[in-house]
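Risk register update: the risk of archive-format incompatibility is retired. Evidence:
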Amino acid sequence: MSSTGPKQTIYESLAEVAQALGHPHRLELLEHLAQSVRNVEELAARVHLTFANTSRHLQILRRARLVETERRGKEVVYRLALRGLDQIVDEADVALEPIAERLATCTRIGPDWV
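Archived output:
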């Protein structure tokens, strides 16, 4: 039986953020947004994705409350919603480096790998 109390709500929010951060394209989008406010077209060109794919990744980031939007006339621009998010991503990169190195040397993944 699952609980829907405050603790469970926090866990669900954290899981949503973790899922949003769990894709390389979304991390790259966050990196570009840490530099400047940008629209979908600019972001798509910078990360070499289609407009639709970029928009979908931004929706996921927005749902996780990692980015915000602002309408400027007919244009919608995106910005980071949290200060210090770039530092979190940098720290995660450092923390995950040993795992990435280990994965790079793997020839197969199985029970003996973990």
